Amino acid sequence: MRYRIHSHRFGETILKNDEEFTEIWSEIHGIIQSISDEAIIKKFEEKYAGKNKSLSSTLNDLFKSEFIRRGWASESPIFQDRDYSENVWRLDFAKENISVEVGFNHSGTIAWNLLKPVIASELNHVEKAIQTRIGVIICATQRLQRAGNFDNAIGTYEKYVHHLKPLNTQLTVPIVIIGLEAPETFRIVEHVNEDGKKRGRVEEIYTDLIVDDATETYDEPLFDEDLD
């Protein structure tokens, strides 16, 4: 997948230049780039097309598989105390000194998703189960939101970046926000199935033209440039 990056408190600079983080930062890039349009379509059509209208579960599934395959801890608890063991007190993924949140949920969770890497990195009165130094948040850009038929209320990359300024004092640790771009070859369109339920289906965005007995493929523009 293609993506864009926004850095808070020099997060990207640290990940790119500090020897402690360069290898694992490269690994995160590799995970994102390994998720191709073909892999997304295959997973969606095999597992989620019959019950979902967006790519949310598909992408969560693919990211979870890739992170776990490369040795990341999944659903890692921040605290040892059982009173704080619910999902809300867990990181999506953690490895060494980095925590990762993959967020395609409601925009109301943006502030909490931004605070979790801080809680995982700072000292606390509750005994910690993990101690990280930098947080990475992977989310959808507005273009992926539309192309993937996500709900309009999800927390997009643009909304995450918008939250950084008022939360600057609270977000005391370096954070990198990664915004996933729309697929290049397809989009998910909504339809109503035989049971009257809204579901998604894959629609390719290539147009095949026959030119001199050869087939050439051209990209159709997915969105107007002024939609952002």
Automatic annotation (TrEMBL):
Gene Ontology BP terms: DNA restriction-modification system
InterPro entries linked to this entry: BamHI/BglII/BstY (IPR011338), BglII-like (IPR015278), Restrct_endonuc-II-like (IPR011335)
GO molecular function: DNA binding; magnesium ion binding; type II site-specific deoxyribonuclease activity
Keywords: Endonuclease, Hydrolase, Nuclease
Tagged with keyword Hydrolase: yes
Keyword Hydrolase in record: yes
UniProt-listed Pfam families: Endonuc-BglII
Name the UniProt record assigns to this protein: Restriction endonuclease BglII
Organism: Exiguobacterium aurantiacum
